[in-house]
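Students often ask why inverse folding is considered easier than folding. One informal answer: many sequences map to the same fold, so there is more than one right answer. In these notes we will look at a single instance of the problem. The structure comes first.
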């Protein structure tokens, strides 16, 4: 399978989750400004949506939308989901909160919002983080092991660091635990996000 990604984009969540799952996969970098992939292909020919993540399965089926991609990974690697009757529902609940509330709130930071819009967005993201911080059920969102939702939350926490958004201590600790995981370091190194690392 192949993941189309862009460094530090939300596709980093899928990149980490695929490594956590132990799957074999290829990566193709996308320049979101020029729409060119690293092989010179026009990314709009791959997906008319022209945004990452895009996961192309071995049989050729394509999955877009981060919630759908992460849900597929969790279905194929149950260790990245939550057990029990409501397990998948809880993961989807968290993924939906992260994508529709937190990720969406970052838009002014990434898309040239005014100083005022950016400041208001920071306050909003901090309040959303507070909601999550009070509901951790262990070292991670649901237990002492990470789920696909932790992979997505981790990317939001990296963005928070980049845009100096106030982050509650429990989520800083979660971020640091994720940062210590070999899969996370390998993903970040590959995307050229660790100081001193060369993208491979
Ligand atoms: N609805 C999509 C949105 C994904 C999205 O916002 N991707 C960003 C990167 S984090 C992107 O590729 N944006 C395209 C662009 O900036 O041109 C999803 O949830 O997967």
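Output (designed amino acids):
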């Amino acid at each position: 399978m192949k993941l189309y990604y862009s460094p530090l984009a939300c596709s980093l969540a899928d990149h980490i989750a695929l490594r956590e799952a132990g799957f074999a996969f290829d990566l193709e970098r996308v320049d979101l400004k020029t729409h060119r992939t690293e092989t010179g292909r026009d990314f709009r020919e791959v997906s008319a949506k022209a945004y990452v993540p895009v996961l192309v399965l071995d049989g050729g089926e394509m999955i877009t939308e981060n919630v759908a991609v992460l849900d597929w990974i969790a279905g194929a690697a149950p260790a990245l989901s939550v057990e029990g009757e409501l397990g998948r529902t809880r993961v989807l609940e968290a993924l939906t909160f992260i994508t529709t509330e937190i990720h969406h709130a970052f838009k002014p930071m990434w898309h040239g919002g005014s100083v005022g819009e950016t400041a208001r967005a920071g306050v909003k993201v901090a309040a959303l983080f507070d909601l999550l911080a009070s509901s951790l059920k262990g070292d991670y969102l649901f237990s002492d092991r990470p789920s696909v939702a932790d992979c997505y939350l981790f990317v939001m926490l990296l963005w928070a660091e980049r845009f100096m958004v106030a982050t509650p201590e429990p989520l800083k600790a979660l971020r640091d635990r994720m940062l210590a995981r070999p899969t996370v370091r390998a993903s970040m190194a590959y995307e050229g996000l660790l100081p001193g690392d060369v993208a491979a």
